[in-house]
UniProtKB/TrEMBL annotation:
Transmembrane spans: none
Residue intervals of the ATPase domain: 14-235
Gene Ontology molecular function: any one: ATP binding
Highest rank taxon of the organism: Bacteria
PANTHER family: ATPASE DOMAIN-CONTAINING PROTEIN, DNA-BINDING PROTEIN-RELATED
Species of origin: Pseudoalteromonas fuliginea
Keywords: ATP-binding, Nucleotide-binding
Keyword match Oxidoreductase: no
Protein name: ATP-binding protein
Amino acid sequence: MKNIVGQAARSANFWDRPYELEDIWEAIDNGSHILLCAPRRVGKTSIMYKIVDEPKANYIPIYIDTESADSEAEFWSKVFNALMEEDFIASLKTKTKNFWDKIKSIKIASITMDGVEFGDGKMLDHKQAFHRLIKDLDHDKKLIIMIDEFAQTIENIIKYEEPKNAISLLKAHRELRQDQKFSQKVTFIYAGSIGLESVVSKIDAIKHINDLNNIKVPPLTPPEAEKFTIALFQSAEIKINQTDIDYLLNTIHWLIPFYIQLITQEIKKIYRREQKLDQTVIDQAIHNALDNRNHFESWQSKLKTALGKNEYLFSKEVLNDISNEKKISLLDIMNTASKHTLNDSEAKDCLHSLIYDGYINNNDENKTYQFNSPILRMWWNKNVAN
């Protein structure tokens, strides 16, 4: 197993997540449409690729990343193009001849802001066109359409078009999901590095996603993290004892694969030069990892793009304070909100986003907040707060 840091892992490099995959497949088998819930870096994309690479019988999965779409038309264009892409169509030939024959026969002349024009000259709006495409397939297998960064797409549309366009897209998807015949042919899985609930709540549109089956992708359990760590060090051909494994994982604390992989990579760089591994090396590896700005910068940039000026300044100050103090109270947070002219409701919306998007938690004490990841806390303190 290669140590792939920051990118989706596939095939032999994927660390199996059997329980999460069982949860997802059970929901698919039961006819649910799914919202895959987890902060960034937890491994959602790798799980979706696992479904693409090893689908169950009678299912055809496709993965579509719509992060860069900033309009309804561009979103639908990405979906249609993915379904009509030569590589995807070619892959169907060995999986299902009927599906391959049908999709090869469908001709799309153009995709515009107004809708989709088919080869027969008929022009339909995007939702109707998508419905027709699926209806025309009339296949014996079910299509699983996995849309990554859907929440970011909705946020982009709010920002670059207007909220009513985002609501239009959300409503169109809900109407498709509520169509019983359509849902017999298609399962949607939505995922992303920001919370869809927190995005749609800003435009009072939570009702358009309340039919989704929420499935969480949690961090690794301590036993899972230990096995993962051992596998990484075996792959790196470095011997690590139990004491150092315990120290490494206790220091990382938030046991998502990304942080374990990142620190293991830095340990290997030191080991290559010094041929030793102890707690001092682990500490140095963590210190070195903080210089990898590209791995952490998105935690700040996401806030800048997602929030208004006052909300961003408030959220940034809250994170600054937690990075300095390690923990702060809800009372202190609400006092900070008043400095940025946010009312209680606005401040709590920001706080909810910080929790959902993986920055902080109040798991230990209900009214006390801390970073999920001590490593992110150290990076934030070094590069943002001071």
